[in-house]
Structure formats: C-alpha cells, structure tokens
Amino acid sequence: MSKKVDYKKDYKQFYMPKPVPDILFVPKMPFIMVDGSGDPNGEAFAMAVEALYSMSYSVRMSYKSKDVPVGYYDYTVFPLEGQWDLLDRSKPATDKSNFKYTVMIRQPDFLTEEGFERFWEQTKKKKQNPFLEKVRFEHAEDGWSCQMMHVGSFDNEPESFARMEAFCSENGFIRSSKIHREIYLSDPRRIEPSKMKTVLRFPVNKLNKP
User: Fold this and answer.
1) Confidence of residue 210 (pLDDT cuts 50, 70, 90)
2) What is the DSSP letter of 16?
3) pLDDT for the residue 66
C-alpha cells in the first residue's frame, strides 16, 4: 500500500498556514456536509458534527469491508470545517443564535456519489442520529481566498479577520463575501482557548488597477 496521506503534510498549504494573512487558490474538493443554524454550543450542532464523523470513519475504515472502494488509499481523516453566515444581517455578529452554518469534512478523492450512498445506508443502520438524514455529498471550491492561522479563542477571531482584510487592501484584493470558512485543528474540550488553532479563510477578488 502506498504511503499514508496526511493532510498536515500533503495538503499543508490548505491546513497549516502561518499566523499571518496570505492569498491562495483553493481548488474543488469533495465533502460530506450538513446545514444548520443557531448557537454552535447547542445540542443540534454537536449532533450534526457527530453525524459527519460517523460517516467519515465509515469511509476511512472501508478497507476492512468486503467491497473496498476502487482506488482506496490510507489517509488521516480530515478536520472539521465550518462555513459561517448570519440569518439576519441586521443583528450583531456576536449573537450566536443568529448563526447560519454548513459544517463539513473533506473526503478522499476515491469517494464517489455511489460510494457515499452505500456508506450512508450502512451508517444509518449503526447510528441513531437524525442529522444523518441531512448529510449530503458535494464538491466545493473556495477559489481565490485570503487565509491565516488564528491562534486563540473563537471570540478573538474578529482581530484576525481585521488583519486579513487590511492585508487584502494593502495587496490589491478585496473581500468578496461576508461568508467565511473555519477549519478546526484543535479540540476545544482538550486544549485551553489561548492555544487553539483555527484556519480562517474568506473569498477575495483582485482589484482592477486604475
């Protein structure tokens, strides 16, 4: 079997950026995802995340099944990601009950729609989680983006976003959407807030020079 694919090494540019802003192109990638809204500290968000991990580990462990996916290779399960927006933009961004999100986990390139359906049916038989009914398989492309590693509490993210927007302005780019992506590299249950690492990313457009 070929060497194990580790996202921290093999896809370092997307998952291990430096703690300073940078511009990069993020290509199309396969994900399983779930939509939701409300406070991410609530039970619904936790169940959505649990559904994603249940599916992801079904795919990861499929090499032990009788029907191993074509092209299967060993890999590290990718980290949880979230794409965040607001239900009502007239409300402050600090109101967590107003959050709108899509949580997702990237999948290996060998996963197909047919394979997803098979793992989905298998997982539903093993796990009692209503959010499994909402899980879908989709390819997503962020395109040209600004990103950086945020070190610290989620509540301090606005400081990093301000740095990113200033960097864009200084380098001929502009943020093209209020929606942003977060990639969670730390488990908040095990690591103190000041040491947590989260990749922050938002889409950008290049400004036309006068």
Assistant:
1) low
2) S
3) 85
Cα 15 to Cα 34, 78, 134, 186, distances in angstroms: 21, 9, 26, 12
The mean per-residue pLDDT over the stretch 47-58 comes to 96
Single out the residue of 135, 155, 158 nearest to residue 55, CA to CA.
135
Encoded tokens for 97: 């009950």
Q: How far apart are the first and last CA of the chain?
A: 54
* Exposed e or buried b per residue across 165-195, where buried means at least 16 C-beta atoms within 10 angstroms of its C-beta: bebbeeeebebbeeebbbbbbeeeeeeeeee
Give the pLDDT score at 82: 97
Q: What's the CA gap between 34 and 52, in Å, rounded?
A: 8
Query: What whole-number distance in Å separates Cα of residue 115 and Cα of residue 112?
Result: 5
Candidates 180, 178, 173, 179; CA nearest to 205 is 173
Question: Exposed/middle/buried for 148, CB within 10 Å: 0-12, 13-18, 19+?
Answer: buried
Report the C-alpha gap between 157 and 105 in whole angstroms: 21
